[in-house]
Design a protein that fits this description.
It is a single chain. The chain is of the alpha+beta class. 46% of the residues lie in helices and 9% in strands. It has eight helices and four strands, in the order αααβαβαββααα. A four-stranded mixed beta sheet has the order 1-2-4-3. It is globular. The structure holds 2-acetamido-2-deoxy-beta-D-glucopyranose. 2-acetamido-2-deoxy-beta-D-glucopyranose binds next to loops. InterPro entries: DUF1415. It comes from Prymnesium parvum (Toxic golden alga). This is DUF1415 domain-containing protein.
Length: 235
């Protein structure tokens, strides 16, 4: 996996006709274009998005793990997929705030939620947990005025492991994704779902937790592990 990532970020030479290798007679041709072509997303970016989309469809939607964004996941285009090239926490936090501001700038009907995929984040799961704790605390702090507590992040990582649960439990897959991902959700939307639940006499977070545990248990560790192996291979 690591080798693949390293190989994928080494830029391949652009297939432009080279003046140096062209026959001498052709060297006097004027350059074809004066503006550089737009930067193309790298193979890794594309693979990370493909894997993340497949995970959304084959795991999150199929098992109904995230009712908050389920409508958005069903309508193509309402989910923004962004690849962060962050290798560490500081860069990932920067990209998170940038994406948070972008999301709040968009109309909620247009872009419902953002999946910030970080295929190059390589600090490991312990650092990812501490990033999670720091970010959740920071966003809820009154002094944080940039996003003004309007964005709720959800964290996913291929190595996410809940403490106090046996290592081969399917429950860990509730927080696993093929690549590290921060899902940015609008707090207004979450509040709406919670309010609708309460009207039906349902505590939504508890209902989600029970539902997710039940479907993951039913799916089983072996099948989820195999599914993730395929998803990571696709990327
Ligand atoms: C997950 O753990 C494996 C095994 O320790 C490691 O090789 C891999 O790099 C980790 N993945 C991430 C994204 O940190």
């Amino acid at each position: 996996m690591l080798l693949f990532i390293l190989a994928a970020v080494i830029p391949t030479p652009a297939p432009l006709p080279s003046l140096l290798t062209a026959a001498p007679a052709q060297r006097s041709f004027p350059p074809l274009a004066t503006t550089p072509p737009p930067a193309e997303p790298s193979a890794l970016d594309a693979a990370a998005v493909v894997s993340t989309r497949r995970w959304i469809s084959e795991v999150v939607i199929r098992l109904g793990l995230c009712p908050y964004a389920s409508d958005a996941f069903h309508s193509e285009g309402k989910v923004r997929y962004t690849v962060s090239h962050a290798g560490d926490k500081a860069q990932l936090i920067d990209d998170f705030f940038t994406e948070g501001l972008l999301l709040l700038h968009e109309a909620p009907e247009e872009v419902v939620t953002t999946m910030l995929v970080a295929p190059l984040y390589e600090e490991g799961i312990e650092e990812f947990y501490s990033l999670y704790e720091w970010l959740v605390d920071t966003l809820e702090d009154e002094g944080e005025t940039m996003l003004d507590n309007q964005i709720q992040p959800a964290f996913f990582h291929p190595n996410w492991t809940f403490s106090g649960i046996e290592p081969e439990s399917p429950l860990h897959f509730e927080k696993r994704a093929p690549y590290p991902v921060i899902n940015l959700l609008r707090r207004s939307q979450l509040d709406e779902v919670v309010k609708r639940g309460l009207k039906r006499g349902v505590v939504i977070n508890q209902q989600i937790a029970e539902h997710n545990a039940a479907v993951l248990e039913q799916e089983g560790f072996a099948r989820l592990k195999e599914c993730f192996r395929r998803l990571q291979e696709a990327g």
